[in-house]
Amino acid sequence: MSSTVGQVIKCKAAVAWEAGKPLVIEEVEVAPPQKMEVRLKILFTSLCHTDVYFWEAKAQNSVFPRIFGHEAAGIVESVGEGVTELAPGDHVLPVFTGECKECAHCKSEESNMCSLLRINTDRGVMIHDEQTRFSINGKPIYHFVGTSTFSEYTVVHVGCLAKINPLAPLDKVCILSCGISTGLGATLNVAKPTKGSSVAVFGLGAVGLGAAEGARLAGASRIIGVDLNSSRFAEAKKFGVTEFVNPKDYKKPVQEVIAEMTDGGVDRSVECTGNINAMISAFECVHDGWGVAVLVGVPHKDAEFKTHPMNFLNERTLKGTFFGNYKPRSDLPSVVEMYMNKELELEKFITHEVPFSEINKAFELMLKGEGLRCIIRMEG
Ligand code: NAD
Ligand code: ZN
């Protein structure tokens, strides 16, 4: 058994002291895991738009000082009281939303919106005792979405950890702990395109390309990528996107452009932008009679969805999804297996890599809209 069990661990963490200011690598104390908690050593983490959004803290409550990070992979160091499913040495993916396996949502086959462990971006403490497990000289440092992976060690509720195949390379599968699974699941689990169908993907960031990857796996014959940034198109070709539409190149609304390209509309659309106009277009561009649109992007807090009710009466369906409808503990291990079986390709999502000491570079890349995923290596 490791000598750190039951002890406070001192390690490096990237602390966000203030909104929008570069993170500072600090020595933090990480308390041992309490009831139903697990302490893990993070090996790789990546940066997702949600981290940047809450770090910028432009449109939401801010909790600082905080340790961000939620897309990651690690190894269990020790477990707290009541944890029986995980043991030191297990390989895990932390997830920003959880699965308690006991609530009505967890028992429902349809839902992944666990009542106990559903994402909460305002909470900066652990559920068990409403305390933080991070501190610097006794001063609390707050958690982010229950994961805080920008730290060499972190403490996570057992319900937010997926135990995965120990042979899976953690520097690749870490990106399955958020964005890629979200897009992939939105297509495979919610939009469910059939073989030979047409799919429009709005927003060609990592989430949208995860959705495109799902369309490719489902055997869609046409995958239409829609983005305002034409530089996204070159990369998207690697993901099987067959046609591109930049709404800025047309005078008419993009839904009309797509309807003309597809003889009345696409069979499925998946929106991965967070932009309300793109959400409306994504709904209105699906074919009447059978088209299904799925919203994934997180909208501005004041956004309102406006469309004519006839669009529904004409048998178009609008859905929304959270984390691609995957239940983190039950379903994520099988997504890792899809990668291990070479069905799912992950390498093409990874465009950059930096050591932990240069974590701020990952923020700069995302702010410039460059690349898809930047892996942050915790060691060496
Ligand atoms: P990203 O910023 O890398 O990509 C978004 C893309 O959308 C960009 O290429 C941008 O140019 C494009 N875009 C913006 N407005 C557009 C418009 N009106 N029309 C067409 N394209 C437009 O972001 P990402 O990391 O891929 O995340 C995408 C969205 O998914 C974000 O809103 C994120 O918060 C959300 N998200 C949701 C969940 C969930 O569970 N529902 C999980 C993770 C991320
Ligand atoms: Zn639950």
Automatic annotation (TrEMBL):
<dbReference type="GO" id="GO:0004022">
    <property type="term" value="F:alcohol dehydrogenase (NAD+) activity"/>
</dbReference>
<keyword id="KW-0520">NAD</keyword>
<keyword id="KW-0560">Oxidoreductase</keyword>
<dbReference type="InterPro" id="IPR013154">
    <property type="entry name" value="ADH-like_N"/>
</dbReference>
<dbReference type="InterPro" id="IPR011032">
    <property type="entry name" value="GroES-like_sf"/>
</dbReference>
<feature type="domain" description="Alcohol dehydrogenase-like C-terminal">
    <location>
        <begin position="206"/>
        <end position="338"/>
    </location>
</feature>
<dbReference type="InterPro" id="IPR036291">
    <property type="entry name" value="NAD(P)-bd_dom_sf"/>
</dbReference>
<dbReference type="InterPro" id="IPR002328">
    <property type="entry name" value="ADH_Zn_CS"/>
</dbReference>
<protein>
    <recommendedName>
        <fullName>alcohol dehydrogenase</fullName>
        <ecNumber>1.1.1.1</ecNumber>
    </recommendedName>
</protein>
<keyword id="KW-0963">Cytoplasm</keyword>
<dbReference type="Pfam" id="PF08240">
    <property type="entry name" value="ADH_N"/>
</dbReference>
<keyword id="KW-0862">Zinc</keyword>
<dbReference type="Pfam" id="PF00107">
    <property type="entry name" value="ADH_zinc_N"/>
</dbReference>
<dbReference type="GO" id="GO:0046872">
    <property type="term" value="F:metal ion binding"/>
</dbReference>
<comment type="similarity">
    <text>Belongs to the zinc-containing alcohol dehydrogenase family.</text>
</comment>
<dbReference type="GO" id="GO:0005737">
    <property type="term" value="C:cytoplasm"/>
</dbReference>
<dbReference type="InterPro" id="IPR013149">
    <property type="entry name" value="ADH-like_C"/>
</dbReference>
<keyword id="KW-0479">Metal-binding</keyword>
<feature type="domain" description="Alcohol dehydrogenase-like N-terminal">
    <location>
        <begin position="36"/>
        <end position="164"/>
    </location>
</feature>
